[in-house]
Amino acid sequence: MRRVPLIVLGVGQVGSAFLAQLLHVRGHLQARYAVDLCPVALADSSGVLFDANGVSDHDLKVLLAQKAARVHLGEQPGALEAMYARELVAYAAGQGVEEAIVVDATAAAGMEPALRHALEIGYGVVLANKRPLAGAWEDSRIFFEHPRAQFEATVGGGLPVLATLRAMVDTGDRVERIEGALSGTLGYLCSRLEDGEAFSVIVGAAKARGYTEPDPREDLSGVDVARKMLILGRTAGWSLELGNLTVDPLYPSAMAEMSVEDFMSALPRLDSDFAAYIGALAGVPRYLAEIGPEGGLVSLRMVGERLAAQLRGRLNQVTFWTQLYHDRPLTISGPGIGRENAAAALLRDCLQLARTAAQR
């Protein structure tokens, strides 16, 4: 049995779902693959649970129950004080934890030093966090080129988008262009715009249902979609920067600095503009992104016969035009939102790293 220590950064929605899925399948993975994915450190901004021999299943279940009751990790019995991520990685190594996998289930900025240090000392890295992959190319390229870095959960809500793209690139296919509808939140918004509802009403409903971030501008800005497309482009082999993509937000720049409350109150001003745009052009509204070797565009567009016109609700879709898939492009479509989907992608990446290490 190969024991693989896990250091989980972030025990929020995705991190908790990851631990719950691991508890469910851990015995199966042990029996089938002779691999024990063993959490030794769990961390968030409130504190750290650490046991070099592995946090017990009982303690994991207690933690998940407490998190569901909104009890901070730092309030758990035996929790250590909060550490910066790089400090925690160094602490684990100092406690004799070898060949671990660091799982970044956060959406935090500034994680790059911890992740680079993890790779330097022989750890693996698995990401749901897009930010380390979408920074300046010289800072991010290590995560695209290092064999112990995986990040399927960052694009497509856990759909096998990056695995498919890597397989094409690794077998010599040349990627020419990629198009994607990569926001379940904006897919929901576009479907309801298509049905004739007012923009402000849709955004308000999405926020109330938890489909958007607490500040809906984080979704409506298009920047998250741009990061996903940049990750796809860099995986395809294009050393692009975020500035190579033109991103059109769904609100005017004058609303960018408002408080969330003022922003929500001002949204009805935009209803007539959206209604006029949709009424004037043929097709259906879709928030689409496309990228090629020179850059890309992220924007709301009216589409007709394209595959994206068939999307409804919170589905994601990615289409690849390549040397082999030129006249009939390859399309992957499915649920693009949900913590369980992202958690499953993290778990698959951890298992892949563990199995690859076992074969060395």
Distinctive features:
single chain; Rossmann fold; six-stranded mixed β-sheet; 12 strands
Short description:
The protein is of the alpha/beta class and 360 residues long.
Question: What does this 3D model show about the protein?
Answer:
The protein is an alpha/beta fold and 360 residues long. It is built from 13 helices and 12 strands. Helix 1 (13-33) runs antiparallel to helix 2 (57-68) and helix 1 (13-33) runs parallel beside helix 13.
Mean pLDDT, as a whole number?
Answer: 93
Number of helices: 13
Total discrete domains = 2
Note poorly predicted spans. Answer: none
CATH level 1 name of the largest domain: Alpha Beta
As a percent range, the share of helical residues equals 40-55%
Quantity of strands, as a count: 12
Widest beta sheet: strand line-up:
3-2-1-4-5-6
Largest sheet: 6 strands, mixed
Work out the radius of gyration: 21 Å
Second rung of CATH, namely the architecture of the largest domain: 3-Layer(aba) Sandwich
Could you give me the name of the CATH homologous superfamily of the largest domain?
NAD(P)-binding Rossmann-like Domain
- First-residue to last-residue Cα separation: 15 Å
N-to-C series of helices and strands: EHEEHHEHEHEHEHHHHEHHEEEEH
Strand portion: 15-25%
Structural class of the secondary structure composition?
alpha/beta
What best-fitting shape do the alpha-carbon axes yield? globular
Give the helices and strands, then pairings.
Elements: E1 2-9, H1 13-33, E2 35-44, E3 47-50, H2 57-68, H3 85-94, E4 101-104, H4 112-120, E5 124-127, H5 137-145, E6 149-150, H6 161-170, E7 175-181, H7 184-194, H8 199-208, H9 217-220, H10 223-236, E8 245-247, H11 260-266, H12 271-280, E9 284-292, E10 295-303, E11 315-322, E12 330-335, H13 339-359
